[in-house]
Design goal:
Blueprint lengths: L8 E9 L2 E8 L7 E10 L5 H6 L9 E8 L10 E4 L2 E2 L5 H4 L11 E2 L11 E5 L3 E3 L6 H4 L4 H16 L5 E5 L3 H14 L4 E6 L2 H9 L3 E4 L5 H7 L5 E6 L4 H9 L1 E9 L10 H6 L4 E4 L7 H11 L1 H5 L2 E6 L3 H9 L5 E5 L1
Parallel strand pairs: 10-11, 10-13, 11-12, 13-14, 14-15, 16-17
Antiparallel strand pairs: 1-2, 3-4, 3-8, 3-17, 4-5, 5-9, 6-7
Bound molecules: zinc ion (ZN) (2 copies).
Length: 344
C-alpha cells in the first residue's frame, strides 16, 4: 500500500555521453508482483560509472542507493516506510550459487541495478524485493550507502583473502579511491592496531584522507612500493587487495607479497603477468578475484557500520543535490574526493 502520495511522473538525470548529464521526465511505475518502489534519499557515485558518464546510458544509472519504501506490490513482505539500501545484482535466489549464499555469482541473474535496470539517481527506483536490504531507523541513509561498494566490496575481498591466509600482520591496499579507503577502514575495524595497513596512491588528497583513517601511506609519485614499505619498517605484505585495476599496481604488490601471501584483485581493469613457478608454486602464494559481495554480508556489515559510524562517515567527503549531479561527477572524476553523494 502507498505510504505517501507518489507522483505519476518524475524527472531523472539522463547520462547523454561526452561527460554531459541532462534531465528528462520518466513515468513512475507501480510495483508489480514481488516489487518495491523506493524513494531514493542518497546515491553514491562510483568509478565504475565513468563509462556511463562519457559514453551515455539508456537507463538511469546509480547502484549505491539508499531510500525508503513508498509502495509495495503483491506478494511482498516489506512495509511502506521501511528504510534500506539496494543491492546491485538482481540474483535469482534459486541457482546453485544463490542457494549457498553466493548471490554475487548467480548463474541466472535478472539484471544489474543502475547498469541495465534503472538505478538510484532518479527520485524513485523500482526493484525486486530480494535486492532491498532494510537498514533500520538508526542509521542515516546517506551513511547507509557505504554498506554497498565501500563496505560490501571491501569486506568481501578481505574475507576471501582471510580464507587462505589467517595470520595477517601487514595488509596492503593498492589505490586510495573510495574502495581503497573502504578496504583500509574495514581492515582497521576488523584487526585494530594489530595489523599494519599500508595504502598506496598517486593522489595527495586521497593519501591525506587515508592517513586520517589510520593507514600507513605510500605516495607513489615519490617512491616505489618496496621503498615505501621499508620507510614504514615493513618488508613484506601478507594480504594485498588491489582496488586500482592497474597492472603495474598488481605487479608491484605481487613482488612484495610474503611467502603464503595472497593477492586479491577487486578492481576491474588491466592484467597481471605471473611466473607460476617463482610467483605461485615456490612461495605458495595465491591470486584471487573478488566480485562485488554476497547479499548476506550486508547484515554483518550493517552492525559494523552502526558501531563505527563517525569513523566510516569520514569517507564521505562531498554531498550534492541531484540537480548538481554534473558538478558532482566532475569533482569526483578529478580525484580530489573521497566518496561523493548525490542526495534527493
Ligand atoms: Zn560501484
Ligand atoms: Zn541465482
Amino acid at each position: 500500500m502507498t505510504g505517501e502520495a507518489v507522483p505519476g511522473e518524475m524527472v531523472v538525470p539522463r547520462f547523454l555521453g561526452r561527460g554531459e548529464i541532462g534531465f528528462v521526465p520518466k513515468p513512475v511505475r507501480e510495483p508489480g508482483r514481488g516489487q518495491l518502489l523506493v524513494k531514493v534519499k542518497a546515491n553514491a557515485l562510483c568509478g565504475s560509472e565513468r563509462g556511463q558518464f562519457f559514453d551515455g546510458s539508456g537507463v538511469t544509472p546509480g547502484h549505491e542507493a539508499a531510500g525508503v519504501v513508498v509502495d509495495a506490490g503483491p506478494e511482498t513482505r516489506t512495509a511502506a516506510g521501511t528504510r534500506g539500501v539496494i543491492y546491485l545484482m538482481d540474483f535469482c535466489g534459486e541457482c546453485r550459487s544463490c542457494v549457498l549464499g553466493f548471490t554475487n555469482q548467480c548463474t541466472n541473474k535478472r539484471g544489474d541495478v543502475g547498469f541495465n535496470r534503472d538505478g538510484g539517481y532518479g527520485p524513485y527506483v523500482l526493484v525486486n524485493e530480494n535486492v532491498f536490504c532494510p537498514t533500520g531507523d538508526d542509521v542515516p541513509l546517506a551513511e547507509a550507502t557505504m554498506l554497498l561498494d565501500v563496505m560490501g566490496i571491501t569486506g568481501h575481498a578481505i574475507r576471501r583473502g582471510l580464507r587462505l591466509r589467517e595470520d595477517v600482520r601487514t595488509l596492503g591496499v593498492a589505490g586510495a579511491g573510495p574502495v581503497g579507503l573502504g578496504t583500509l577502514a574495514m581492515a582497521r575495524i576488523w584487526f585494530g592496531s594489530e595489523v599494519s595497513v599500508v595504502i598506496s596512491d598517486l593522489s595527495p588528497y586521497r593519501l591525506d584522507l587515508a592517513e586520517r583513517l589510520g593507514g600507513k601511506v605510500i605516495d607513489l609519485r615519490e617512491k616505489m612500493l618496496a621503498e615505501g614499505l621499508q620507510e614504514h619498517g615493513l618488508d613484506v605484505v601478507d594480504l594485498a587487495i588491489d582496488t586500482s585495476g592497474k597492472g603495474a599496481a598488481r605487479q608491484s604488490y605481487l613482488e612484495v607479497l610474503s611467502k603464503r601471501g595472497v593477492l586479491v584483485c577487486a578492481g576491474h581493469g588491466e592484467g597481471l603477468s605471473l611466473d607460476v613457478s617463482r610467483d605461485l608454486i615456490a612461495p605458495e602464494r595465491a591470486v584471487l578475484g573478488s566480485e562485488y559481495f554476497c547479499y548476506d554480508e550486508l547484515h554483518s556489515n550493517l552492525q559494523l557500520l552502526r558501531d563505527n559510524l563517525p569513523y566510516l562517515g569520514q569517507i564521505i567527503t562531498h554531498r550534492f543535490a541531484v540537480q548538481d549531479i554534473q558538478e558532482a561527477f566532475e569533482n569526483f572524476l578529478r580525484g580530489e574526493t573521497g566518496k561523493v553523494l548525490v542526495e534527493q
